[in-house]
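Human:
Take a look at this sequence-structure pair and walk me through the tokens.
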Amino acid sequence: MTIPLPEHDHCKNCGDPVPFDMQFCCMDCYNEYQEKQKKEKMREVKFWGLAALTVVVIFVIAILV
């Protein structure tokens, strides 16, 4: 027979159990998660910027040829 666990959630950063109304287990996890989000956003901006630049270069080459 298993004992039911109290209602809980998991930390968005490390996965440790936290009370249901919390998203992070500590400020360190919150700060680490925020840094990861910033890096991911910057990675997306760089990707789409490079994609747009590539399209522009292809159009310029097509016009010149």
About this structure: The mean pLDDT is 94. The two ends are 76 Å apart (CA to CA).
